Amino acid sequence: MTGTGGRVALVTGASSGIGAATARLLAARGMRVVVNYLRSGTAAGEIVAGIEAAGGRALAVQADVREEAAVEDMVGQVLAAWGGIDVLVHNALIPYAVKSFQDMTWEELGGKLDAEMHAAFAVTKAVLPAMTEQGWGRIIYIGTGLSRRPRDHMIALGTSKAALEQFARYLAQELGPQGITVNIVAPGPVEDTRMAHMTDVFDNEHKQRQVAATPLGRLAHPDDVAQAVAFYAGEDNAFMTGTTAAVNGGMSMY
Asked: Which helix (H) or strand (E) holds 68?
């Protein structure tokens, strides 16, 4: 265990949505949480204040996870404050184009692939030394059901997240002997996230069709996704690695 006062978890893109819900839940379970953000400093500060008001410990750190120098600086700040990072939850949403393949440029598709994998590469490289040194670590990547089940106009996101998920499986194989588990949480549509507010592409009728296709009768909330992340991040998850948790209410079963 890093330092004193509980495991240290770095949650990327934690100022809102799934990341914020995950940060709050991990803190409630006794972890010290690093709330990474890109531009939403005020929102990240509010997440930290809420965690501290509830008796937890949190630290907001700005970094663009697509830039290796920024990631290294962020991890350095965490090492200075808390001694290491035990848990990585890579949730930061890299911008992407929502359009058909026929309307898409290579810069839009290839750029998303490159940025998605570069961010995952950078944050994972940065946290591994401390995890390997202590022989314990938990890495969780936020994927999407769109990696396996295509939807109109979502080729950039679905393709890049499919690459991320296979990357995670390779890491699970390589890092398992070092006591590090690597897993994927793949939500379906989630309420109260940036994607949920893309009303120019997905209207209320589209949402109702999604609900109708979900056996549990609603879309996910960020807290639903956070619960799956928290399981993978915890001490109890000693023997699951290279797996995908589909948090979609049964909309897609695999």
From this structure: helix 68-82
Tell which residue, 91, 144, 78, has the closest CA to residue 119: 91
Instruction: Quote the DSSP letter at residue 238.
Output: -
Tokens of 73: 């600086």
Per-residue pLDDT tens digits of the chain, which is 254 residues long: 554 469 999 999 999 999 999 999 999 999 999 999 999 999 999 999 999 999 999 999 999 999 999 999 999 999 999 999 999 999 999 999 999 999 999 999 999 999 999 999 999 999 999 999 999 999 999 999 999 899 999 999 999 999 999 999 999 999 999 999 999 999 999 987 655 444 445 567 878 888 888 888 898 899 999 999 999 999 999 999 999 999 998 888 87
- Fold of the domain built from segment(s) 8-246: Rossmann fold (3.40.50)
Structural domain spans, the chain: 8-246
pTM for the whole structure: 0.93
